[in-house]
Amino acid sequence: MDEVICVDAGSWGIAWCVDHEGRLRQLGVGPDARRATVDVPAAFYPLAHPCWGEDPLRDTPLRVTHADGMLTTRLAHQGSRVDVDDMVTRTVIETRDEIQPFTVRFCFEADASCGVIEAWLEIVHHETGPVLVQAYDSISPLFVGGEFGLTHFGGGGWAQEWAPTSERLTPGTKVIDSFGGIQPHLQRSPVALLALGREPVTETTGAVLGFSVGWCGNVRLAADLRLDGTLRFRAGANPVGAEYRLDPGTTLSTPKVAMVWSEAGLGDMSRRFHDWIARTGVRQPDRLRPLVINNWEATFFDFDHDRLVGLMDRAADLGGNVFLLDDGWFGTTFPRNDDDQGLGDWQENTEKLPGGLAALCEAAHKRGLDFGIWVEPEMVSPRSELYGAHPDWVIRDARQPREHRQQLALDLLRDDVFDFAAGVVDSTLAAAPGTAYVKWDANRSISDPGSTALANDRQSNLNVDLARRTDALMARVAAAHPDTVMMLCASGGGRVDHASLRHFHEVWTSDNTDPVERVVMQWGFSHVFPARTMAAHVTRMGDRPLEFACAVALSGRFGFDLDLAALDPDELRICRHAVAVARLTQPLVQFGRLHRLLSPAAADSPGAVLAYVSDQGDLAVVFAYQLQDRPTDGDQSVEIPLAGLGTSGTGPARFRAQQLRLDAGAASFDVEPVGAPLEVLTWELAGRHTAGTWLLSAVTR
Ligand code: DGJ
């Protein structure tokens, strides 16, 4: 029997075989692929990863112009290697062009504990000169004879992250791509969900394959459906404007694309992604994330030492853990009192902060708070001492570069700039020893791509090289500060990709903190990323009831971005209750398993309901958010079935509920028992934007 190369993720797999010419063929993708056999001559199976020239009828995932000008590539199998390490199986399939000294390694890591496969390519050659790699998708599985739906997220620009679009695929190629290098979310998140079959996939039913591209640069996902019902799905770095000139002996590694197949709907798929990220994809996964109080939405640039200490007093009184000082603390010649100057000059502005960061850090410690600080290490303002001294340190070509948000991007491909950027975090933390938290921001996209670190004929390598260098910078900073909690932010929820997340504890989900819109964003985010990584702060945005804003933030990593000193007594009481609820529920939110119970996108849905359940399935917190207007008469309640909460999805269906009330009415916070054990939670609707929060304990039958 012909050899089958199977990448087995426990519940599903990817199976390939080799035909008589050495070509890799796809035997199957999905649960059945784990048992696939070669039943007909291998050449009858579709090519696994066609190269330019092999499939004349479709765009192909790998397109290369060889050193001698040859346009075609035909890879032949050379051998495979499999290493098993605990639950992770690493498979490398080695191929080489039939006539060129050009090799491609197909690399996979399959984590059977969560059912995740990560796949990428390593391209290396020994031709007589550089090879131009024009298309370099990391994956290209083929699906046969079905109907397909696709869900993807984002696309509205700033503050519009994670808005979902779901569609049935029709013949043609659907491309989801991003540009601009730094903030892919401003176009599309690097995530897509492929529904495999005629019926829509629900939270608990249907086959779905989720894709997440781990890349902090431009991404492209493409679904190419033909009338014959075959669909080839490609994903990886976006090669547009980024043809890669690869020198002999050097390796081009493409981004890792993570895939999760579920036969049990979106909920199961998400929990698998979450488990996998918690295993290896985030820093200190078991550390409870702190309650962060940030000054940004409260003060913007308008602060001084005393105002910040006033906020700290309230933060400490409320029971916060970290006081985070955002943008605006630096710049002496060009003080950063607005976003039009000062980036790059990372010295404290002693007019605003006479004692510098050290005095603030000390003030925080005195109040029992940790201190956190904001930096934007990859950027420079043209009005800054740094730019005056090093105008050649920015990404640009011979033209005058465009400014975005009055700033330019530093060219991390230069070693001096790379060291400077790493030093920004080191020196900022050294200025206030004991600083425990860093928010890393990046507020512009790349325009006018060009680098003095690249030869003239290598300029289009910039996109790929910059993403790699940025990743290396993040890795270096993370390694240098292993105990510092770090948040990744890029003008809101940019750079929410699973590779960057490995160097951070959490991300800033969006600058859009209107809780009504946040519910939908957090819903989208949760398809791949777990709640412990989803920073969610209470603000005034949208002018919604404060208890509603608190309830929405409570279903992520909870914090405040409010002017705490300006709260009236009722508002203060609501915030106190929210902190009390956070103390009770954050461990469940951060470490529990997510069940999305009622989608805000469902027809006639008044809002959204979700639950986080303990590993044992015996404890849950349920959040219900009313997003729609309701008529004031008639049926004012929604029944939320609790069945399905639990580790296996068939866990205890009867819970005892306690309602966690955030409203200002009660002088002190207490939980209200709801009564007899429940199988269905009744959610009483009211006017607009109310929220219900319940703590559930399972009742043994
Ligand atoms: C964009 C971020 O998303 C905000 O939270 C804030 O840090 C600003 N940048 C500061 O300039």
**Ends apart, CA distance between termini:** 52 Å
The largest sheet, given as strand count, sense and whether it forms a barrel, is: 10 strands, antiparallel
Task: Tell me which ligands are bound.
Answer: (2R,3S,4R,5S)-2-(hydroxymethyl)piperidine-3,4,5-triol
Q: How many discrete domains?
A: 3
Query: CATH top level of the largest domain?
Result: Alpha Beta
Please name the CATH topology of the largest domain. TIM Barrel
Would you count the extended β strands for me? Answer: 38
Task: Output the structural class.
Answer: alpha+beta
CATH superfamily of the largest domain: Aldolase class I
Uncertain spans: none
Q: Helix content range of the residues, please?
A: 10-25%
Strand content: 25-35%
| Spatial extent as radius of gyration | 26 Å
Assign an overall shape: globular
Protein architecture, described:
Strands 5, 6, 7, 8, 11, 12, 14, 15, 19 and 20 form a ten-stranded antiparallel β-sheet that branches. Strands 21-22-23-26-27-28-29-30 form an eight-stranded parallel beta barrel, surrounded by six helices. The two termini are 52 Å apart. Helix 3 runs parallel beside helix 4. With 701 residues, it is an alpha+beta fold. The longest helix is centred in the C-terminal third of the chain and has 23 residues. The structure holds (2R,3S,4R,5S)-2-(hydroxymethyl)piperidine-3,4,5-triol (DGJ). (2R,3S,4R,5S)-2-(hydroxymethyl)piperidine-3,4,5-triol (DGJ) binds next to loops. (2R,3S,4R,5S)-2-(hydroxymethyl)piperidine-3,4,5-triol binds next to loops.
